[in-house]
Amino acid sequence: MEKLEINNEILTLKREMKIGRVHLLRRLIAQVKKLENAKGTDEQRTKKKQKAERWMQQVKVLQKANLDSLARKAMVSEECWLKVISEPKSTLEERALARLLNLKKVQDFVTSFRKEHPEWKSWVPQLVEMWDEKKARRLSYKAKGAGPTVQLCPTSFPNSDNDGTTDAAKESVKKRDPFFCKEGDDDDDDMEDDEEEGDGPVHPSWAAKQQQKVKLANLSAFQGKKITFD
């Protein structure tokens, strides 16, 4: 239950940070425009433009910030974010993220959670660390491109031609298509029946029919030309 509870709390904190980031970005961008449009001597304007560039870099950091990681960090960290902001040795990225973590709604949420769960130090950091390790392994796995490749539809089969069709499939097509029948295949049974009837007198119409069958048996497969019978 602890795992589900902390996960829900982190998701709620993430939504609060998303809203707070919008307001923070608006304030920073307004400050950048104010510095860029400031008047004064050339030296003063140069310094203000440089400061505006630093503010703008923090804006870009906040725009790309991963709120999932920041929410987990806010739940477990006891660092004073005001000190990070005012520390001269802090980088622009550290200052930008500290500004977001130091928002009043974020701090109020974390403080309220810790009051409701006085023993949070015994289980919250362990769960967050476990999630971070799983995420790191997953990202490294994707970066390496590991994993078996699956061939969903084979393009060729053993003992087949380059067109990717098996012999069995070709034979089935031949059986269904009359143009692939061998010469005289359809007439073998009729010829055998005629031979079993004997050499007695044959009706003229039957004789003509037998002659026509013999001619058809001697013809090759249809090649696209019109065939006429005598």
Automatic annotation (TrEMBL):
Write out the entry's keywords from A to Z: Coiled coil
Q: Where are the transmembrane segments?
A: none
Q: For the Bud22 domain, which residue ranges apply?
A: 167-230
For the keyword Coiled coil, the answer is yes
Coiled coil, from the record:
none
Region (Disordered) residue spans: 152-211
Purpose: May be involved in regulating transcriptional activation of cardiac genes during the aging process. May play a role in biosynthesis and/or processing of SLC2A4 in adipose cells.
Question: What's the protein called, per UniProt?
Answer: Serum response factor-binding protein 1
What species was this sequence derived from? Ixodes scapularis (Black-legged tick)
